[in-house]
Specification:
single chain, 369 residues, alpha+beta, 11 helices, globular
């Protein structure tokens, strides 16, 4: 996989995105057409009508991103309504569909790490894209996500990164759609600005945003239309899977996680707790290789951190790990493995320059250092 550079105005960024990944975007529409029918009994035409209700919310909270969506549509030869619907896919489908992502923030040896597995339907594997977005009016950022969508998981030039855990819930209210909110966070200068997106703009439907910055700060936000639940680091760790547990703002939201969400969280806590245990013999510095090995864990398979094809699940609910990402936010470096982290050492690494504020990324493909 290669990173796609996008630059200029919002419209220029969108058009370049659409031209570069038009075929993948069209395939994404077909994937979500099937998913909407599988989970909520809705065809694409009806989904487009449902997506219209989110347009005024985006116009109020992040109007500039609509120019980019319009550009994506032009570049890909599609309707704006298709791109809007794609970017509202969580709000349309997550009443029933629930991914299996596992995410963590880890502070160790003066380094702030942020990492996760992104688990979703395997028919979306080849529609994953890596984007470097250098806008005229926003920080440069790297985003790993789905073709045609304005953002998902990534980091920006200020060393601010965000990960995502899906939450299955019937709650949907006023605020920014999840993926639009993620992009707004990736354009923030620091953790305080990112927090304001969750507390001021709010997010239409529940999700967990794990946010950290290279200065060693991290927090989990269980976002929703109301006040978010907040998870602060314990011994330098924040972990999350696919259920709500912050216990404050989001406690009034009903979620419907699969049973394996709690077992994956317990396994993540155990593995990361061992890395933080000062009573253990010194294990040497932690790097990308060690954290990808953790994400490749198969304890409790097939419902493990690294998820594979599971024939015992209904076909429409089979979730597999489609990519893994490890971010060293202190060094402003992101490393991606496309596919399951256990199956290949091949990776894509992108890094901002040595001086803070440098707008151009550096890329490398191959094994981690």
């Amino acid at each position: 996989m290669h990173i796609t550079p996008l630059s200029g105005s919002r419209a220029e960024i969108g058009e370049a995105h659409g031209r570069a990944h038009g075929e993948r975007i069209t395939h994404s529409l077909a994937v979500y057409d099937r998913l909407f029918q599988d989970f909520v009994g809705m065809d694409w035409a009806r989904a487009r009508r449902v997506a219209e209700r989110f347009l005024p919310m985006i116009e109020r909270g992040f109007p500039a991103i609509l120019e980019e969506m319009d550009g994506i549509a032009r570049g890909a030869g599609l309707d704006f309504a298709d791109i809007l619907t794609l970017n509202c896919r969580s709000e349309i489908s997550l009443t029933q569909a629930n991914g299996g992502c596992s995410a963590f923030a880890l502070a160790r040896d003066h380094t702030q790490w942020l990492a996760q597995n992104w688990d979703w339907r395997s028919d979306q594997l080849h529609n994953v894209v890596a984007l470097e977005i250098s806008g005229d009016d926003a920080p440069t950022l790297f985003s790993i996500g789905e073709a045609g969508m304005v953002a998902k998981i990534g980091m920006n030039e200020h060393g601010l990164g965000v990960c995502l855990n899906a939450i299955r819930s019937r709650t949907c209210g006023a605020g920014l759609p999840i993926h639009v909110a993620l992009r707004k966070i990736l354009e923030c200068r620091d953790l305080d600005d990112a927090m304001a997106v969750a507390r001021h703009d709010r997010v239409c439907s529940p999700a967990h945003f794990l946010i950290a910055q290279g200065d060693g700060r991290a927090l989990g936000l269980e976002v929703q239309p109301g006040e978010p639940g907040v998870l602060l680091p314990e011994n330098g760790l924040v972990t999350h899977t696919n259920h709500l547990y912050a216990g404050d703002g989001a406690q009034r939201v009903a979620d419907f996680p699969r049973a394996d969400s709690r077992s994956r969280l317990a396994r993540l806590d155990a593995l990361l707790g061992a890395l933080k245990d000062d009573a253990l013999p010194h294990q040497g510095p932690i790097g990308e290789r060690e954290l990808f090995a953790l994400l490749a864990d198969h304890e409790g398979a097939p419902l493990s951190l690294c998820r594979h094809f599971n024939p015992d699940q209904p076909a429409e609910e089979r979730m597999e790990t489609l990519f893994s990402v490890v971010m060293d936010l202190t060094q402003r470096r992101l490393t991606l493995r496309h596919g399951k982290p256990c199956e290949s050492d091949e990776s894509l690494t992108v890094q901002f320059g040595d001086e803070p504020g440098v707008d151009s990324g550096q890329t490398r493909q191959g094994d981690e250092q």
